Structures
1.
Amino acid sequence: MDSYDVKYAWRITPLLGSVALLVMYTEAMLMPSLPRIQAEFNITPADASWILTIYLISGTISAAVFGSLGDMYGKKKMLSIIMVAYVFAVTFTGYAPSFEVLLLARAIQGLGMAMFPLAFSLIREEFPPNMVPTAQGIVSAMFGVGIIIALPVGGYIAQNYGWRATYHTATPIAALLTFSIVMFVRESRYKTPRRIDILGIGLFASMAVSLLLAISKGPDWGWYSPRVLSLFILSAVSAVVFILHELTTNDPFIPRDVFNRNVIAATLAIFIVAYAFQMNSQNMSYLFQMPPPYGYGLTILQTGLYMLPPAAAQIIVAPLAGRFMWRLGARKIAAMGVAFAVAGYQLSAAHLYSGLWTLITYMTLGFIGLTFLNVSLINLLTFSVPRQRLGAATGINTVFRNFGSAIAPTVAGTVLTNFSTYVYYKTPLGPIYFSVPSKEAYVINIDIATAMFLATLVPIAVAREVLGQNVNTPIKQPA
């Protein structure tokens, strides 16, 4: 019979939640600063996009690798190593003397994505089962807190003191959090030492890097360019070889016993949810910042401030979703999330130009649905695998979340570009014409995102319930 320290669990929950807060704060405050970074280093917009691309690639690989290493050598040990590297990277980024050094620092910073699967795994492994959904909800809510802090505070600091100052503010926070985790978080009790599958890691990295690079650079390089087509081919070949290797080797990089009906369902659903969320986020950013009458003409900082209510809703709803999940079950909460998301998105599409606060109200409803989905899916996943495999399972979940987030901007951008209209301004030298997305473009993107949310009902229906009062089959615990 497992014994749990409830006081320890409540004491550590804010620490693990702060991991999500730190990463979201650091990333969200970077976005408004990209034009200034571009100007300082005298680079093109295509060059500047590498600041985001290299972080995404590094983070995707590290989430899978360090998740598995956490199962093998201890999740706290891996989390501590990553956080030390993250402190170094954040500091390094703030003082980067050149664009090349900045990219190197951002690649190291990408290790921060591996904090999420390790934090979620530690909660499931060390907390009393009835506390896990609420704790997972609190950690999920910290994503919203990070955005709430970063958008106004990061925007103000960048505007008045420069983009480097935003990183200087993150360094002491990261250092203090790292010290606290090293000192107060206990090591996971379940470890499964095995041989490190170097070939499997290499094949996985080849597959992920080539795919993400092709998706990220396709709009700039051309979808039918030799570089992009070669990357897609390399990714497909690597994927086939990787699967064959994993099915035949004795110690696969991703243990074969990780995959079951619920893990596959939760991973597929989180891919779809991440896609839909990222697609609509880009959609709304354009709508807020395009000039009237085709948008609301907001600045980047104003856009961030108007996004605070939806982010604040996450803080309130996520822990409540976790609390009710133990009674209602993860699948019901997920289905409720789909209902809220579909209603919020479709009402937003119908009232795009009915006023900012009307639009924000409906967007907040959609964010509530997103929160229900995120909290329910991570619990559906973590309650469906043995605790000695949690790192690998949550790592793969993060990988597919990143894939969904990477694909969405390309699709949304294509729609916004192809369904556009022209506006002009009168100047002493004559009218100046430029292209802006039409109302039809925004509605199409929202409809696509809505369809994706509805598609999550399929994996949700296929999954077996593991929480709730009506669950007859006890949750399997490792010996």
2.
Amino acid sequence: MTTNPGPKIASSGCTPLSSADWDRLRELSNLSAWFKSASSLRAAEAQVLRTWTALDHQKPPETPWATWLMLGGRGAGKTFAGAGWVTDQAAAPCRMALVGPTFHDVREVMIEGPSGLRAMAQEANRVRWEGSRRRLVWETGAEAYAFSAEDPDSLRGPQFHAAWADEFCAWPKAAETLAMLRFGLRLGEDPRLVVTTTPRPTRALKVLMAEPGVETTRAGTAANAGNLAPRFLATLEALYGGTRLAAQELEGIVVETDGGLFRAEDLARCRGAPPAKFDRVVVAVDPPATARGDACGVVVAGRRDGRAYVLADRTARGLSPNGWASLAVAAAVDFDADALVAEANQGGEMVRSVLAQAAPPCPIKLVRASVGKRARAEPVAALYEQGRVVHCGAFPALEEELMGLGDGDLGHSPDRADALVWALSELMLGGGKAPRLRVV
């Protein structure tokens, strides 16, 4: 039997498949019965292989989404993720848009780059570039047209089934170009958009992150370390570790702008393990004003020997009152909390009533904001500067909101950050209750 060495999978970090592997793939998949043409068969074969070779953070979210926003550090494999997704769509005839900061970026990175679309396809569902029309054409009949974010009006008129937007934070006219692109996503039953970018604290990105239907995933450079030069990470960490630049460019976190209370260097050094026992544990809740609007902030924190430990961020969006109350109560049960601390500015006693209906295992304490968010957060930010707060896990979305407090450009309500401020204020800044020891 003649074997095919198969397509070259760029930046996969995996051992190439042997001829025996390819033979077994064909025997197991039996794809010929599912597709009408040989080109569709090869495209499907490549899609199966990418599922094997892509790292977890390079795969689309399993939850329903209209827009997948992948925030990643330099070299995290964002191009591989975007090109892989577009190539999967090209297994069947469709029209797609490729948008980058400039047309040069689209051609050299998204299409011709080592992890780009031409390297991704190769022998499986061959693709050709038509320079005069600025488009890629696959053997299946799928098409992808190249556009520059420098010219939003070029997106007026064309229509698409799907789109890939790369390095969104480097777009010169980000909000305008994104709007024009979305107006063109009107073909098929489920048009989707993938956005891959190293984050910057731009208003356009913050607005995008807060939109309904946007599923955000994150990956630091270290997640793709197996495909990078051995000394790359070590050198950059030695030079920039713990700085705002490292948080943005290596960890893929949206860092604070001028005026932010919480510094990247403080958050970078606050990570650690929880103690075996706590004096006290609370669950803080920042209820949403409506089910369709802001998220419900739910943060769990404990105190031990003069330090606060952030244990979990269970913030969720789009929940009914019963839904977010059940979420908060479940966190209280899981961590054997002493109290549910809930902000009551929006709902008053109704907040207590909704939480009580979910049968909490601990008392409910309502708190009310008498000063602005920045004033409430300042004492908590001082705790971080003093090294008195430990994050017992990775909480990138929470840290992004903390670093956005005070800059006036967050783009959405900082529900996670508000909940954390209430939790640490209760534990460290005057919340009164006699301590007790307990194993968690």
